[in-house]
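Appendix B. Chain record.
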Amino acid sequence: MRVCMGTIVHHPEDARIMHRQIRALLAAGHDVTYVAPFTHCNVTPSPKIRAVDVPRAVGLRRAKAIRAARGALRRAAADADLIVVHDVELLLALPRGRRVPPVVWDVHGDTAAALAAREHLAPMLRSVLVPLVRRLEARAERRVRLIVAEEACLTRFRAPHPVVRNMPDVPETPPPPPGEDRVVHVGHLATERGAAELIELARLLRPHGIRMDLIGGADTAIRPRLRDAQREGVLDWYGHVPSRYALRMVEGALAGLSLLRDLPHHRTAEPTKLIEYMSRGVPVISTPLPPAVSLIDEVRCGRVVPFGDPEAAARAVLRLREDLQERIEMGERGYREARRHHWPDHAPAFVALLESWAGAGATARRALAA
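Structure tokens predicted for this chain:
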């Protein structure tokens, strides 16, 4: 099977796209063409894929990236058995024609809700973009196949669609126990994702000899504050790090942090970040979003702190540092739960789903040619 994967929004080393889906396809013996912004993100493509470099869609400047992706996807359609796109923007760049292979849109989250929460966007602009995205979603459901990253996404669509969850690779052997002088956050940094609270938390922890590692790219609006805090020695910001390395950096931390704000699209999102921390034997500290609260209460693997309260988060960190046995037990319980979500155990079902759709598409194209 020859699969063309495409993104102009996500980093080429995105954990879901590159390190889960593409690696699963390669392991199953399939060929992958990957359309992604390699140069923009300073990424050297893996020699195991056919890489097609395109501009990245950033901010409101997306037309150039969409045009480049349209040409790349059209060329890939000539010999692909399946096209998988990961951005709502790429719904505007899909090739057309009776001989185009089946197209799959992988719905990562709720783009419209995320846009509605972007405070730096003018209200008038949000009032245009949000309904536009909703119309694109409705049209996509009629024209292409969908998979979704979590069940909450299904409420936006009329029909049921396969759920392919974000699951980490969990080491077979238990990771080292949590340490006492470092907390960590892995993931994109943005105001609505609690970046300001993380910076303030780092300032509160610094006098206690606890440093903060931030691993992930950042929105333009928050970057100056992150750079200032790093220059002051308040925290260490590493930028984007590929998932397989980022999670190794989590090992031995005192706690993994998720200080998401109370926004509609956060209230139903699966706590993937927490499971990633748990996979490395680290206690978690999260704001009280319902899925996170449910996971932490059930597994007893961390602490819940109020929204927008860095002082409460600091107290939770310090309590964990004071109780070595508690944080070791939290880390062990979290790791055992994370093993249930080990991506390689679920990858074959994902590959089989794409194989079935590609096979159906090949049959339809042969009928057209007859």
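Further analysis of this model is presented in Appendix C.
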